[in-house]
Amino acid sequence: MKAFSDTRTGTMFLAPAIVILSAISLYPICALIWLSFRHHVLPFDIDQFIGLENYTALLSTARFWNSLVVTGYFAILSVTIEIVVGVVIALLLSLSFRGVGWVRAAVILPWAIPTVVTAKIWDWMFQPYVGVFNYALEAMEIIDGPVNWLGSPVLAINAAIVADVWKTTPFVVILVLAGLAVIPQDLYRAAAIDGASSWQTFWHITLPQLGTVLMVVILFRVVDAVRVFDLLYVMTGGGPADTTETLSIYTYKILFQTLQFGYGSALGVTMFLLVAGLSLVQLWIGRDMFRRMIGKRV
Hints:
The protein has 2 domains: 1-27, no CATH class; 61-294, MetI-like fold, CATH 1.10.3720. The chain has helices at 2-36, 53-59, 62-93, 100-112, 115-125, 132-139, 155-181, 185-193, 198-209, 211-226, 230-235, 247-256, 261-294, and strands at residues 38-41, 46-49. It contains 13 helices and 2 strands, in the order αββαααααααααααα. A hairpin with a 4-residue loop joins strand 1 (38-41) and strand 2 (46-49). By secondary structure, the chain is mostly helical. A two-stranded antiparallel sheet has the order 1-2.
């Protein structure tokens, strides 16, 4: 009876937020889906129902598959590096040493800087003739001449990943630090008594205890990485030769540069389904992991 009462009370408190979010989100989503079934080109005043033709055209377009590959490469590599680097930094910052508070504040700064500003800073740093990277590499005699980082089809996407890692790793650090703070210290004391090494302690205690936190971090970061737009658009504009054109940039160009609202809406729906699918898969994996950790059903 008490559980039923708590559930009903929680539902009552959540109901206004659910209604407002539904009212704000439902209409635009339905309008986007409806528009994706139409051939709607604003400059020529064309608007007709064509069913699934936008989706069949999308699946047969090489540019769409290229943007999907670029998005996947960017998301997988950037999120992987951010998780690894973020966990290492969080472990170091969890130690007690003089000035740790100032170091933690400094680590958070990149995350506080607006993404557009971050993109422009890194754009300047990667400039071939006045950028700090080429200056430092030439001073160390690693390269013989200027490297056009953002103008190279091979280097541009990787340069953008470096900028994204610098920008969003602090987000990972903050959440992992919070997770480390709630791990019972008795577990570490017991491990020390049993003679466990630092690596064994990390692998068998710290990492499993951080499992739920890491799943949340991965969920948020994958969703953000798949939807990435501003960082890459400011740094490269999707070039050179579409090698940094993600799904978001491709959708933007179709919608607001060519004004093909029907086809662009189909791209938007596809990206929405991709993000939703990835989120559900990660939530399912995280739920299964959490169930195994606590030894009972969630």
